[in-house]
Amino acid sequence: MNDILPIILPILAVLVVLGLLIPVLMKTRKTTRKYLGPRDENDPVQAPGAGTLVEDRPASGPAAPARTAPDSVGLDETEVVEVPDDAAGLETVPVETPLPVAGRLARLRERLVKSNNVLGKGLLALLSADKIDENVWDEVEETLLLADLGTEPTMQLVDALRERVKVIGTRDPEHVKALLREELIKLVDPTMDRSLNIERHDGKPAVMMVVGVNGVGKTTTVGKLARVLVAEDKDVLLGAADTFRAAASEQLATWGSRVGVPTVKSDIDGADPASVAYEAVKAGIDQEVDVVMIDTAGRLQNKVGLMDELSKVKRVIEKLAEVDEVLLVLDATTGQNGLNQARVFSEVVNITGIVLTKLDGTAKGGIVVAIQKSLGVPVKLIGLGEGADDLAPFDAEGFVDALLN
What are phi and psi for residue 206, nearest 5 degrees? Predict the structure, then answer.
């Protein structure tokens, strides 16, 4: 017996160790974390298990139950909220500090002066001529039309200047510049309300939709605007309802993570955008954020089905909260074509403000006036570059001064 013990004891020790390790190994699996919103036992919208933080689901295994929108809304896709969390093993992205608004405005004004001052200098040269006859006024008119000012605003400006120059009879460049500045400011209309509706009300966050055609920079605009709001100490949540463009959701989430803003997005390619928007607003209400921003897919204004879908997104959101802002993003380089886009979008979702991107390089400054005159909707934001902080509130007097300097 004593001879067998030295052999049996090591074997028993190994078996004991294996018995302890096997259960641990069986439980050690790669996990993902998805925030599905708070669980409400009385909410018929929530599927069993919805509204929980799933911490122990294999990344390659079956998807956990998640919230779906009400049948009456017509939504059937599963949506989740991505929550950055070091404990979940997600990559930590350094949070950036956006530039203050004042610094962005000064920098953008400098760029506007460099890219658009041909209009102002051309007009000043014409109006400072020794003799202002019909040929000069024809050239003034042509200059304004080439700057995308639009026919009606051009006629209005030319008639006003013609009358004032005739009455005063001045040729002093500074005096002429002052007259031109006054008339341009009237056209741009500083009385329009260009503020963003971003204040919580009725116990709910402000909700903002960002719409537009393909390629105008909607997702980038949402990301940049999130930076602006964070710089103003707003608590923001993003909704990636552009479910058709590849990697659009990831692009938006990256923008958000750079300034510490969470993003609601779908794990399903081509998911119902209205469902994503619904989940984003629901999460914003649950988390008591200040602003929920919904990025939508680009769509051509002449595609009836796509425009109807955009209308549906807005209707679905309004089942939870009022849509406070609908910002239409326009590429300033498209000129008068942007007017056609703006009219159709305004009919479908009631546009409350315009964001003009790419207002540098080949853009024509007059498009600001043309759009506002056509729609009665103010330009609220402008973008003048590729940088993360190259978006700023639009200021009528500052814009005109940049054109004339």
Answer: -70, 140
Residues 374 and 113: their CA atoms lie apart, in Å, by 25
Residue 231 has pLDDT above 80, yes or no: yes
Both structure tokens of 374: 């056509």
Kindly report the pTM of this predicted structure.
0.73
Calpha distance 353→325 (Å, rounded): 7
Count CB neighbours of 355 within 10 A.
25
DSSP secondary structure code for residue 217 in this structure: -
Q: At what angle do helices 273-287 and 304-317 cross, to 10 degrees?
A: 20
Q: List, in order, residues 6 or more apart from 274 with CB less than 8 Å away.
A: 69, 73, 74, 75, 241, 309, 312, 313, 315, 316
Q: How far apart are CA 6 and CA 27, in angstroms?
A: 34
Give the neighbor-by-neighbor strand order of the sheet with 353-357. Answer: 53-54, 34-35, 80-82, 263-265, 236-241, 291-296, 206-211, 325-331, 353-357, 379-383, 391-393
293 and 238 Cβ atoms separated by less than 8 Å? yes
Here the tokens at position 209 are 């939709």
- Here the tokens at position 371 are 């759009």
Contact (CB, 8 A) for 272 and 76: yes
Among residues 316, 123, 300, the alpha carbon closest in space to that of 209 is found at 316
pLDDT tens string 186-197:
999 999 999 999
